[in-house]
């Protein structure tokens, strides 16, 4: 029994009999039909079992904005190498390189050191080693040769280099691309024998006159009506802010360190020159683990020197048993100070992000459990001005432009500063991060020779400013109306 075929179906079948498997776009070009007509015809033919449709999906990689800039100027680390090559002696002051590279200075230093291209000695950058093209540079060239269509991720052999580029903001863009091929079934191939060579397509647009008595309207369809919203799964807005903060510090050349939520009082308080009778160490301010103490809290020499510093500075007898009490950490500085003490870095840029715990009454601006970012920079010639510049750079990358610093007091830093940022929504200056230089009573007993710049602050406060919230508890109530309205961080 022969089937009645619409002219669109006839044209598609005839084309597929001549050119085998084609995409809908290729069919539209060959037949000179619209893509919408082609898609409609394919659905009709599928229902009649005359064509089959196969779908595949692949990830396509194209260059982002900064990837295109890197193709022209080179990656930040390559720009640094080229700059040093242009100088007498292949070296320069760190400040000269910073002025030349500007915002790319941090990533350039971090990656050039990782590649073994430079070394830093007494605040000078010096070129060293070989400077062959990196795997990342090769991938950028491969992708650029395939623009604008891009290249399939499966075609890129060096997957680790691609992963490295993905961590750099706006260097590569990954998109999922579906491809559809339409081909004839055996029944469809047999049917094409009865399709005429010349197909009249003028009838497609003809209007057939039907008497009103024969017209039956079942329901009206508004083809311009909006589709219902679809709320796909997404990461929590606070998690987006945490990831954004982490990405900024990594881009500035910092290394992340991770520590346990449970710490001994030695590292949480004593190592930071907090006296054992300080009010912050009372039960009403700190969560202690009941009837549990640490075994070994530190090296014997570290314990001896810390106890001597407390006796000298606070004029009391330091108790080792008190230092062994376990607490839920009240800050993340205990992680970075221990890393500095154990590894004795000459130069280092470290940061830590994690939960901290305070025995406080919940309110619109206080939580008992929240996230804190904290970092340190140590080096022979670091100054408070370096710390102010670092914080300014961080805030700029967070989209905050108005910043100032006020002198203040913090227990284990001197001098100390409070960073202030201008909140456009509130129309006033608000406090954000505290910062300063570790006191010698903190660094000397632990054998830390060089000055240490330190800062820290709550990430929830940044999120509140970013999302225009008045109550920090709104971040954790998980109201769908709010979660769906917050745009995802870039």
UniProtKB/TrEMBL annotation:
Enzyme class: ligase
Record-annotated Aminoacyl-transfer RNA synthetases class-II family profile domain positions: 349-487
GO biological process: one example: phenylalanyl-tRNA aminoacylation
NAD listed as a keyword: no
InterPro entries hit by this protein: aa-tRNA-synth_II (IPR006195), aa-tRNA-synth_II/BPL/LPL (IPR045864), Phe-tRNA-synth_IIc_asu (IPR004529), Phenylalanyl-tRNA_Synthase (IPR002319)
Gene Ontology molecular-function annotations: ATP binding; metal ion binding; phenylalanine-tRNA ligase activity; tRNA binding
GO (cellular component) term, any one: cytoplasm
Keywords for this protein: Aminoacyl-tRNA synthetase, ATP-binding, Cytoplasm, Ligase, Magnesium, Metal-binding, Nucleotide-binding, Protein biosynthesis
Tagged with keyword Glycosyltransferase: no
Family statement: Belongs to the class-II aminoacyl-tRNA synthetase family. Phe-tRNA synthetase alpha subunit type 2 subfamily.
Protein name: phenylalanine--tRNA ligase
Organism whose genome encodes this protein: Candidatus Nitrosotalea okcheonensis
């Amino acid at each position: 029994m022969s089937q009645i075929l619409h002219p669109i179906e006839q044209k598609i079948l005839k084309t597929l009999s001549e050119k085998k498997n084609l995409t809908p776009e290729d069919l539209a070009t060959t037949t000179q039909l619209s893509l919408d007509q082609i898609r409609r015809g394919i659905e009709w033919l599928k229902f009649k079992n005359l064509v089959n449709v196969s779908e595949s999906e692949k990830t396509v990689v194209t260059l982002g904005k900064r990837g295109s800039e890197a193709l022209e100027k080179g990656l930040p680390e390559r720009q640094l190498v080229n700059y040093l090559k242009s100088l007498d002696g292949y070296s320069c002051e760190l400040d000269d390189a910073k002025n030349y590279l500007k915002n790319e200075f941090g990533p350039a230093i971090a990656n050039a050191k990782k590649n073994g291209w430079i070394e830093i000695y007494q605040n000078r950058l010096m070129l060293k080693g070989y400077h062959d093209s990196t795997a990342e540079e090769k991938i950028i060239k491969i992708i650029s040769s395939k623009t604008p269509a891009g290249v399939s991720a499966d075609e890129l052999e060096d997957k680790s280099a691609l992963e490295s580029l993905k961590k750099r903001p706006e260097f590569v863009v990954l998109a999922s691309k579906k491809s559809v091929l339409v081909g004839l079934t055996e029944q469809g191939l047999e049917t094409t024998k009865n399709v005429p060579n010349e197909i009249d397509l003028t009838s497609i647009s003809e209007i057939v006159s039907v008497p009103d008595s024969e017209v039956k309207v079942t329901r009206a369809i508004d083809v311009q009506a909006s589709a219902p919203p679809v709320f796909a799964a997404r990461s929590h807005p606070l998690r987006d802010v945490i990831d954004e903060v982490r990405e900024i510090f990594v881009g500035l050349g910092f290394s992340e360190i991770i520590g346990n939520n449970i710490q001994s009082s030695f590292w949480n308080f004593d190592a930071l020159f907090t006296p054992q009778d300080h009010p912050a160490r009372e039960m009403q301010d700190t969560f202690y683990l009941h009837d549990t103490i640490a075994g070994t809290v530190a090296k014997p020499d570290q314990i001896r020197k810390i106890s001597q510093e407390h006796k000298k500075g606070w004029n009391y007898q330091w108790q080792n048993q008190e230092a062994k009490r376990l607490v839920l950490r009240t800050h993340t500085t205990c992680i970075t100070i221990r890393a500095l003490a154990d590894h004795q870095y000459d130069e280092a840029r470290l940061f830590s992000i994690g939960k901290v715990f305070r025995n406080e009454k919940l309110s619109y601006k206080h939580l008992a459990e929240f996230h804190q970012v904290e970092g340190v920079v140590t080096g022979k010639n670091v100054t408070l001005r370096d710390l102010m510049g670092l914080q300014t750079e961080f805030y700029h990358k967070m989209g905050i432009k108005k910043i100032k610093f006020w002198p203040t007091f913090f227990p284990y830093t001197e001098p100390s500063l409070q960073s202030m940022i201008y909140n456009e929504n509130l129309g006033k200056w608000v406090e954000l991060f505290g910062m300063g230089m570790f006191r010698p009573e903190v660094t000397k007993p632990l054998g830390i020779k060089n000055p240490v710049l330190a800062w820290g602050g709550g990430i929830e406060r940044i999120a509140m400013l970013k999302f225009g919230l008045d109550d920090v508890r709104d971040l954790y109530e998980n109201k769908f109306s709010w979660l769906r309205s917050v745009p995802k961080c870039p």
